[in-house]
Each structure stands twice: as C-alpha cells, then as structure tokens.
Amino acid sequence: MTDPSNDPAPFYRAHVFFCVNEREGGHPRSCCLAKDSQELRDYMKAKAKEMGLKRIRINSAGCLDRCEQGPSMVIYPEGVWYTCKSKQDVDEVLEAHIRDGGRVERLMMDAPSKK
Ligand code: FES
Q1: 1 inside domain
Q2: Domain containing 67 — which CATH number?
Q3: pLDDT digits (tens, 9 = 90+) for 41-64
Q4: pTM of the prediction?
Q5: What are the φ and ψ backbone dihedral angles of 75, each rounded to 5 degrees?
Q6: Ligand 1 binding pocket includes 74 (Cβ within 6 Å)
Q7: Distance from the alpha carbon of residue 16 to the mean position of ligand 1, in angstroms
C-alpha cells in the first residue's frame, strides 16, 4: 500500500461542485435547477473570475443527494456544504470561504449551530 502522506498537494485550492440537476415537475424531491441553480452556478463562475481568484474551479454537478436543501453546493478539499439561494449568498461564500478561508455559517447545511 502507498503511504497517503506522499499524496501530491491538491490541484485546486478550492473545488466547488454546484448541483444543476433537473427533474421532471412534480417530483417529490424537486431539483436544484428548479431553484435557479444554473443561473447561480454561472454567476459564481463569472464572479470568481472577476475577483481574480486563482487555483479554483466551479464545476456543474449532477444530483448531490441533498435536494431538499438545495440549491446544493460542496467545496473541497474541506467538504463544506452550502445552500445558496441568491447571488448575494454566492458572493458571501466566494468572499468569506474561498477568498478569506472562513465559513458562512448561516448558509452551511451542517453548521455547528444547526446540530
Ligand atoms: S437535485 Fe441538487 S442535490 Fe439533488
């Protein structure tokens, strides 16, 4: 077995997976696309570029299985999950989490205060 301490450094400093999954209307779990996730993901990608953030990636993702809490997004390598419902929410995650290395507790799905 290879020693995991020899792993290379992460290629991206922050790798975002933003769910843009679509389901047919009336599905009991709904979907993130019905909550404007495509527009929000595209906004996040453009805004990150505008902010000049380096070594980050904002990927579209299929269903992340947290549909009821969507629009769903997860940021690696930390594995922190957020619900972003507006451009203001996206701005806050970009600035506080990705740029400054903090957390936006009010948007975190698993925030310590929600346990
Ligand atoms: S549809 Fe987005 S998490 Fe399932």
Answers
A1: no
A2: 3.40.30.10
A3: 999 999 999 999 999 999 999 999
A4: 0.94
A5: -115, 125
A6: no
A7: 14
| Residue 55 identity | R
Distance of CA 72 to the CA centre of its chain: 6
Give me the number of domains the chain comprises.
1
**Cβ-based neighbour number of residue 2 at 10 Å:** 6
Mutation pick for ligand 1 pocket among 17, 19, 20, 69 (CB with most ligand atoms within 8 Å): 19
> Is 4 part of a structural domain of the chain?
no
For the CA of 30, the nearest atom of ligand 1 = 1
Give the CA count within 13 Å in the CB-facing half-sphere of 74: 14
Q: pLDDT averaged over the chain? A: 96
In a domain, 24, yes or no: yes
Any atom of ligand 1 within 6 Å of the Cβ of 32: yes
Residue 64's domain comprises: 9-114
Could you tell me the distance, in angstroms and rounded to a whole number, from the CA of residue 82 to the centre of ligand 1?
Answer: 12
Dump pLDDT digits (tens) for 19-35.
Answer: 999 999 999 999 999 99
Assigned domain for 91 exists:
yes
